[in-house]
């Protein structure tokens, strides 16, 4: 996983407060996939999908975890960052929160019905799929998703094109601080390593919403922002966090790419710090089931 999130200077609370909430339609899409009995002969021993145990892996502060609670008898949240687990435990009293990694999941083999990975799979080493296969029941589901680093403004806004162009430039400004994991996110998980044939997963389903333009408002995750609240969200992103750590005398000045973007945004839009606008993210989802 990203070492940024385990750094004691990284604020897990800020991550919880300022990262986007995923739309209900996303969770419903995952539940529909999981609860639909497979017709594959290899899993005829499990004709009815089960809802006993869900695992949110790389859970962070538990943004997605809470959405699993109404649908499963038990939910376990795992992250290798102790600060993240402390925050998750504090607001998820009905969830078993544990410190652990994607390659050493602290769960008994063959017990998990659903694994969710919310904007975290890009930090996992490729062999995490072996561990996912170990803990899953035959017929169990893995659902991984990510939001893009690049935000988009609501399509009806007159400054949509200008805002989106500045977001593209911002990603480029932090190019040297991008890791392989960040690149998977930029690619919307098109290049994310998938399980080998030896692990016996079924065919995957991939869905991408709003990749290049906003074509599904239900999946847009639009939130109201002003410049200050957008700044706080951007500061939670790992490349920006790494740049700020390496450039303490430049951060929050005009030499800071985030502040430079906001300066340009104000010039072309006429906005000030209090102007409100709606912005959201593209979203990519991959779902796959373990065969028997």
TrEMBL record:
InterPro entries xref list: Diverse_substrate_MTase (IPR051052), Methyltransf_11 (IPR013216), SAM-dependent_MTases_sf (IPR029063)
Entry GO MF terms: S-adenosylmethionine-dependent methyltransferase activity
All copies of domain Methyltransferase type, residue ranges: 55-143
Keywords: Methyltransferase, Transferase
Highest taxon in the source lineage: Eukaryota
Family matches, as Pfam families: Methyltransf_11
Biological processes, Gene Ontology terms: methylation
Keyword Membrane attributed: no
Family: Belongs to the methyltransferase superfamily.
The protein, known as: Methyltransferase type 11 domain-containing protein
Organism: Puccinia graminis f. sp. tritici
